[in-house]
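Hi L.,

As promised, Glycoside transferase:
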Amino acid sequence: MRKYRYYLYPISLFCLIITFILLVNNNKPSDKTNIINQYYLTNNSLVKNYGRSNDLEFLSESMGLYLEYLLLIENEKEFNKIFNVFESKFILKKDGLYHIKWRLEDYQSTNALIDDLRIIRVLKEASVIFDNRNFLEIANKLSNSLTFTHMNGGYFTDFYDWNYKQHANELHLSYIDTEALTQSSQNIDFQSLQQKGNDETSPFFLEVLRIQKNKYEPANPLTVNMIDQMLIAIQVLKITDQPPFKFDQWLKSELLNNKKIYGQYKRDSLVPLDFNESSAVYSLLTLYFLEQKDKQLAKKSYELLRRQLPLQKEPNYEEIHFFDFIHSVIADYKYKNQK
């Protein structure tokens, strides 16, 4: 009997160790950097738009979103590596100004406001979290350059061409990042923008401000893209601490009654344009309800997100755009680590 007990001791100890490892792994925040390194990063640390080896683009959007994720998980070493590549490849210093190429091409001379603001916000936050003043200095130079080059009628514009020294004549509301603009000399009254951007005949936002006409118009008069709608709604929620009423009511009704949110809708009839779902839409939907602290609807949104390709066990990364993948990863992390 005593000999039998001796056999039980190592077995019991082994079971305890396995149980402990499982508990630790279950509570460990998801870190997808290994997947990104394997499928989306080149040998020189550029982020590809797809996890394949052909027909690729290298976008400031992709680099900025990856930096945002690395900041979220506080991976300072990887953040520094990726930003050093970004600074050397995407940031152009010309005539005392700092410009960001929206796409990596030798002849590229335009930026995208949404990408610039994301980088500015991430660098400002990284300067605090990683205690690195250099990030703040670069963020301020980018911000000052934006203010100098992008202003048109008192508003930022979608892009600027530094070769021709011309800016766009419109502003997409989905391009605005209020957190990046907090310390900027540009004082955006987003509550006013949101109010004017509301469509009185529809729960959907009028997505574009035509600056020369001082008029808000739909990006498409017939359809709406839910990625743009969700980006605007999240910004409204952050700046006003209140969800946009008509859009919010429609969104919750659609989610609760139809159990899904599709990628595009008809602007007038409010019915889906088709029945294609989007991991990016469900990611933004999850973040929207997390921002509201609505745990029930955040859970419903996250459950829908988990069924999408980026969060499946063995997806085909060759067919998944990095924008969809990284938004899913960010939403997954924030949902699992919500307070």
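Residues 2-9, 13-29 have pLDDT under 50 and may be disordered.

Thanks again for sending the construct details.

K.
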